[in-house]
């Protein structure tokens, strides 16, 4: 039996719609597949570097100026000023200078205030203070990175050499 001519015309009209829908779906599938491939490659490349996450962050982080507090714990006048000048010449931001609660600190101490010991080690290395004299006392109320307490050993440290 022959089809009705009206049915033939209707079937021809419906063909382009099916064709456009198929093309659209193929484009969407291709786009989604591209996104999945890109994300998979990105994840693979980050996991396969073999570097520790902190090393990755260290490379990507912009260097920032450390904010330091300098406290005189030896009682000798002018020592905190000399250390402040020394640190500022080496791009540290000394935000506070003052006296420690006592003047009988034997060895100079560097205190990390933010939870990043690398900052405290950087200050200690710059001044020639042993890393064994670096401690951590995190305090969110301080708006600085590191506190330096100058002890009676100030004259053997780098600012006095």
Which key features would you list for this structure?
161 residues, alpha/beta, Alpha-Beta Plaits, 16% strand, rod-shaped
The backbone outline, from C-alpha atoms, is: rod-shaped
Strand arrangement within the widest β-sheet reads: 2-1-5-3-4
Number of helices: 4
Helical fraction? 40-55%
* Radius of gyration using CA atoms only: 33 Å
Q: Percent of residues in beta strands?
A: 15-25%
- Quick one: biggest sheet? 5 strands, mixed
Q: Secondary-structure element order, as H and E?
A: HHEHEEHEE
In CATH, the architecture of the largest domain is: 2-Layer Sandwich
Mean pLDDT: 85
The residue ranges in which pLDDT falls below 50 over 5 or more consecutive positions are: none
CATH topology value of the largest domain? Alpha-Beta Plaits
Write the topology of this structure.
Blueprint: H1 5-47, H2 53-60, E1 67-72, H3 79-89, E2 93-99, E3 109-112, H4 117-127, E4 134-136, E5 146-150
